[in-house]
Design a protein that fits this description.
Its EC number is 2.6.1.7. It is an enzyme of class 2 (transferase). Its cofactor is pyridoxal 5'-phosphate. InterPro entries: Aminotransferase_I/II_large (IPR004839), Kynurenine-oxoglutarate_AT (IPR051326), PyrdxlP-dep_Trfase (IPR015424), PyrdxlP-dep_Trfase_major (IPR015421), PyrdxlP-dep_Trfase_small (IPR015422). The chain is 43% helix and 12% strand. By secondary structure, it is an alpha/beta fold. It has a four-stranded mixed sheet. Helix 6 links the parallel strand 1 and strand 2. The longest helix is centred in the middle third of the chain and has 15 residues. It starts with a helix and ends with a helix.
Length: 189
């Protein structure tokens, strides 16, 4: 409902859409050429479903990358899941982690699909706003009130959704903020 209203207003006022991507450039030639090669291939394997967790070559490459980044061995076949975008990934996560009545802390503003996906899973969203300091000039000027956040946690809290950089504000949470959130999570277990 709200998305349709905002889209109409954005059209009427010629606003820049910072929502879902609407590329205004053609696909790169190498992408078109690769797609043409696959479409013209006589290899029947290119017309088959891959494993639902992601193509083995892709998850193996990701496993090697994340083994280096995480400084621990990552088993690509059991520890990596590739999805068809953020919506599917979030939906699967909420469905797998939320039982009816579980509470999910959302930091406002938030990505538009969180609230309905939480509701479908039977969860109860609890909203904690990021607040801009007076005369804010940077994403660092968006503050998460620690007392307000702490008061949102309860025995029913199952998830807190954190993204850094924050979407849509762009705030990068500091190590101190992330440690505070981690400590709250540990203390409510």
């Amino acid at each position: 409902m709200y998305g349709l209203s905002f889209s109409a207003l954005a059209r009427d006022y010629k606003a820049v859409n910072l929502g879902q991507g609407f590329p205004d450039f053609p696909s790169p030639p190498f992408v078109k050429e690769a797609l043409a090669r696959v479409a013209a291939s006589s290899d029947v394997a290119v017309n088959q479903y891959t494993r639902s967790q992601g193509h083995p070559r892709l998850v193996t490459a990701l496993g090697k990358l994340y083994t280096k980044l995480m400084k621990r061995e990552i088993d690509p076949l059991s520890e990596i899941l590739v999805t068809g975008g953020a919506y599917e990934s979030l939906y699967c996560s909420f469905q797998g982690l939320i039982d009816p009545g579980d509470e999910v802390i959302l930091i406002e503003p938030f990505f538009d699909c969180y609230q309905p996906q939480i509701a479908v899973a039977g969860g109860v969203p609890k909203f904690i706003p990021l607040r801009a300091k007076e005369n804010a000039t940077s994403t660092k000027d968006w503050i998460l009130d620690k007392e307000e956040l702490e008061s949102a946690f309860s025995e029913k809290t199952r998830i807190i959704v954190i993204n850094t950089p924050h979407n849509p504000v762009g705030k990068i949470f500091s190590l101190e903020e992330l440690q505070f959130i981690a400590d709250l999570c540990k203390n409510t277990m």
